[in-house]
Write a structure and sequence with these properties.
Rossmann fold, binds 2-amino-2-deoxy-6-O-phosphono-alpha-D-glucopyranose, globular, alpha/beta
Amino acid sequence: MIRIYKAKDYNDLSRKAANIISAQIIMKPNCVLGLATGSSPVGTYRQLVEWYKKGDLDFSEVHTVNLDEYKGLSGDNTESYRYFMNTNLFEHVNINIANTNVPNGQAVDPEAECRRYNELIRSLGGIDLQLLGIGHNGHIGFNEPEEAFEKETHLVALTQSTIEANARLFDDPKDVPHYAFTMGIKSIMQARKILIIASGADKAQIMHDAFFGPVTPKIPASILQIHNDLTIVADEAALSQTDLKGMKNSDY
Ligand code: GLP
């Protein structure tokens, strides 16, 4: 089942996404949240922090597993995804930092790190709700086009377009790592619920291709069409190439 919620703009999208995550935490206080980085979820995390500060949310029993991390970066490197999560969410809510997980970018044995991460997800009982953004080429996490659908956590070589897209977040574009650890499509598809968010006209074409075209490894996010509990929250700009009329099982 696919639900699509069309938001007016980024703020509206962030509130809607935060509402869905809040509902998960309220319904299951010890839930496992799969979390994402990038510009898309920043507003969602800001909204969750605001509701936490108002006393509406309790993260004390929540566990988190993040999708991905750059290879070679330590958690205190300001460009690392661990640092992003700490500063955008974890430091501002009452989560036990020991219950938050991001792949270790500095692991000396990458294969062992991937195994550890897969076992960790299993030992937590799987992911209740996985939050995702989407790359311009349809990547989710760092699963680039043509990746096999069946993988769990693995090390990937980033495509040139992803390296360029992410260079804006680095002081020196030359510092963007070329490799990353990422949960695979298989790990993502095993989440009980998936929430994908997208904002802005630059995501309009890929949102159309990923969710209204064929399922293909050329567009990794397209596999989400066959997940049985997928929610899409996107703003008008990101849905501007998409005709929602006549879609069954959608709410917009
Ligand atoms: C990065 C992350 C993805 C993210 C994507 C889109 O490559 N690894 O998890 O979804 O970028 O980011 P943004 O939300 O900034 O467009």
